[in-house]
Design brief:
Distance between the termini: 25 Å
Strand content: 15-25%
Oligomer: single chain
Strand order of the largest sheet: 2-3-1-4-5-6
Largest sheet: 6 strands, antiparallel
Radius of gyration: 14 Å
Structural class: alpha+beta
Length: 147
């Protein structure tokens, strides 16, 4: 599972922070993303690769809780997306919306969706665009600096 969080500064959470919903990932690999654009760098953007060896697990609740965890206590936007969907110029855009299976904006409830038909729908694209609007607002907010 790939979880990205913008607004988290540059210090990753400890792996124990992802002991959620009764599950413990087999591997937690945080990455502070390299060479971000200046507006992203000032907020911090971290990617978490959360691996589970048991592929039969239902990760919907875990996904929501992981998104909630990376957003808590900070002004942030987080999303879970399939590997290969990340590019600085396409964060939460229509081009990648069907590859995003969860998102959270600080102060709101996280959303996670695993149904492929839903992820391909216009309704899902619209919901992801609302998260994109929150991301753009965060990027344009003055005075926010990464930790």
């Amino acid at each position: 599972m790939n979880v990205f969080v913008l607004g988290a500064g540059s210090t990753p959470l400890p792996k124990e922070a992802f002991h959620l919903a009764g599950l413990v990932p087999d591997n937690v690999l945080p990455y502070v993303l390299m060479e971000p654009p200046q507006d992203i760098a000032r907020l911090g953007l971290i990617s978490y690769d959360l691996d589970f060896d048991d592929t039969s697990l239902d990760l919907r609740r875990f996904t929501r809780e992981a998104l909630r965890r990376v957003c808590e206590g900070r002004r942030a936007v987080a999303w879970a997306a399939f590997e290969g969907s990340f590019h600085y110029e396409e964060l939460l855009t229509d081009q990648v919306a069907q590859q995003v299976y969860g998102y959270c904006v600080s102060g709101t409830e996280p959303t996670a969706e695993w149904d492929i038909a839903t992820l391909r729908s216009e309704a899902w694209r619209f919901r992801v665009s609302e998260a994109r609007a929150a991301l753009e607002a965060l990027l344009s907010a003055p005075g926010t600096v990464s930790a």
